[in-house]
Structures are given as C-alpha cells and as structure tokens.
Amino acid sequence: MKPFAYVRARSVEEATAAYAGQPRARYLGGGTNLVDLMKLGVEQPAALIDISRLPLAAVDELPDGSVRAGATVRNSDLAAHPLIRDRYPVLAQAILAGASGQLRNVATTGGNLLQRTRCPYFQDTSKPCNKREPGTGCGAREGVHRDHAVLGHSEQCIATHPSDMAVALAALDARVELSGPDGQRTLPVTEFHRLPGDSPQRDTEIAPGELITGVVLPPAVAGLPSAYRKARDRASYAFALASVAVVLDVTDGVVRHARIAFGGLAHRPWRARRAEEALVGERAGDDAFLRALDAELAAAEPLRDNAYKVALARNLAGDVLRRLTP
Ligand SMILES: Cc1cc2nc3c(=O)[nH]c(=O)nc-3n(C[C@H](O)[C@H](O)[C@H](O)COP(=O)(O)OP(=O)(O)OC[C@H]3O[C@@H](n4cnc5c(N)ncnc54)[C@H](O)[C@@H]3O)c2cc1C
Ligand code: SF4
User: Fold this and answer.
1) Cβ of residue 130 lying under 6 Å from some atom of ligand 2
2) Is the C-beta atom of 109 inside 6 A of ligand 1?
3) E-assigned strands of the chain?
4) 27, 186, 195, 292: which could form a disulfide with 275 (CB 3.0–4.6 Å)?
C-alpha cells in the first residue's frame, strides 16, 4: 500500500488551501470511484482532501427560479428531492439508472461529474493507455472496443464518459459552479467535459485545485416533459452502451423546444444540437424525429466492433421523442 496524507476540510476555503499546499492532492467525495482507482494503482495521490462534510449538501430554489444542488448532495438524495422529481424528472431518472442503491447513497454530485472512464485499458496499469499515461498508445483502438465512442473520438483516445447524471444535466443546460485558487466561476455542463483530441489525459476543463461547489439547473426548462432512457448489458449495475436524455415541448402538434443529449457515445455527454435545430418548428412525428436524429448521427465514425451503437442511439432517442409527444 502507498501511504497518503488525509485532511478533512470544514469549509471550501480550507479545502482549496489544503489542496494547494499538497503535491498530488485529490479531493475525496464519496470515494466510490477514486478509492477503486487507488486500489488498482491508476490513481496514486499523495494526499486526500475529504470534502464530504463541507456545507454543500443542500438542494435549494434560487430567487430567479433556478435550482441549485450542492456538490456533496448524495446521488440518492438528489434523485429523491421533490424539486428535482417535479421540475426535472429527466435528472431523477438518469441518476436512478446509474450504479446501485448502495453506491448512490454514497456518491456525490461533484464526484459523479468527475468519475473517470470505465475503459478496461485505462483501469489496467499493465496496458498501454494515453489517458492514464500519455504517449503510451491506445490499447482499445485495435483491441476490445465494443463499449467505446462513435462520436468525437481521436487517434489518441476512443473512451466514453460514464456518467448518466451528466447526460441529463447537459440536456437541461445546467451549469457547474467552481471555486479555486483564482476565485469562482461557472461553466455550462456542455463545456465542462472535453473531447479527447491530443490530450486525452484531461477529461474536463477543471483547473488544478478547483473544487466543484454545485450545479445549477435553469428555470427555462423546469416542468417541461422530459425523460431518460438507457441501454445496457444488465438491468442494473451496468454502464450505458447508449443512453439519451430528452426535454421536449410540443404544442399544437409542433415542436417548440427540443433538447437532446446522448450518453455512452462520446468522451463527453453529446449534445445533439444538429437534431435539435432540425426539430424546432417541425410537426412532431416519426418523419421529423428520425430525419433529425439521422442528421445528428451522420457524424458518427464507428470502430470495427461498435457500429451497433449508432442504430441503438437512434432507436432509443426516437422512442423517447415519441413517448414525450402528447
Ligand atoms: C460497480 C459500479 C457501477 C457503477 N455504475 C454507474 C452507472 O451505471 N452510471 C453512472 O453514472 N455511474 C456509475 N458508477 C459510478 C458512480 O456513479 C461514481 O463512482 C460516483 O458517482 C462518483 O462519486 P463519488 O462522490 O464517490 O466520487 P469520488 O470517487 O469521491 O471522486 C471521483 C473524482 O472526482 C473528484 N471529486 C469528487 N468531488 C469533487 C468536487 N466537489 N470537486 C472537485 N473534484 C471532486 C475526486 O478527486 C475524484 O477524482 C458506478 C460505480 C461502481 C463502483
Ligand atoms: S480509449 Fe482512451 S482510456 Fe481507453 S485505452 Fe485508449 S487512451 Fe486509454
């Protein structure tokens, strides 16, 4: 076992200061991903800054009608909160589609957004992986890649982002609140996660030492019909092969508002903006839905063994759009 320091932070300021004072520090949320990766030797922090007891465990309505969830709200609590269930059902459904009851009771909002890919080569330190060790190559590209990306991947990395929750947050136009050595800022979830490009070791735009303090859900989409659908190898305890989060407003048979995000297809939640643009103003129905989805998925570049994901995503999204149409 590799020794590491442990610090329990009592405030955001204390957490960020503790991180700055330690080489190779990591924040510890629920630990359900980080501790696993430490056991595998993938993560080797010199210090864990435990943020799980920071006063960031509330879900509140803000004066402008937004809903803010603190970074340490447990996944189970977020999914069960009346404000989320009533106004953003797609988010509750996405969280409940992930992991297991026990894991969701421990996992936090911030940790969920920052969980690492489940690519088996990333998790095996005896294998080449540009994400874990830049410059070593990508074992998955010519290896086992049935679960890997079909959109936005690069020569360097074809991994997918594993979070279900993040896919719903992307469809809801949520923002991530960050606090760090250079102050506070917010980023849209859609710009928080990165495509791999030439630096697959970076999953997100978070800066060293920055702490996620919360996520904010906008009022504009509150209460609109929404749903999450996930295809996976087992009925629970399995990551998405493909998933979709949809927010849809159809009035008088015409699509007034459409937000679609895919999971399991790319290195980040994939916001389907081309499909959304193609849908708004169209008469709701299979013709428009499938045309819009085909326009989006035309950008897919499947690998040897994962072309099935394109048809799977099309079918899932078509089904959800149909179900949300009054
Ligand atoms: C068997 C199994 C099955 C699973 N299935 C699914 C699934 O189907 N769908 C799904 O979405 N997820 C699934 N998960 C993943 C699970 O959702 C994540 O492990 C969990 O959400 C991570 O949250 P955490 O608080 O435990 O993060 P941690 O493990 O504590 O942290 C994860 C990362 O985030 C960083 N971090 C944590 N909080 C913050 C913060 N506030 N600011 C900055 N950095 C922070 C840590 O330093 C670490 O790098 C599964 C996990 C397991 C073990
Ligand atoms: S897909 Fe990405 S994470 Fe997986 S082996 Fe290749 S570089 Fe590593």
Assistant:
1) yes
2) no
3) 5-8, 25-28, 47-50, 59-61, 67-70, 175-180, 183-188, 211-217, 226-231, 242-251, 254-263, 270-271
4) 292
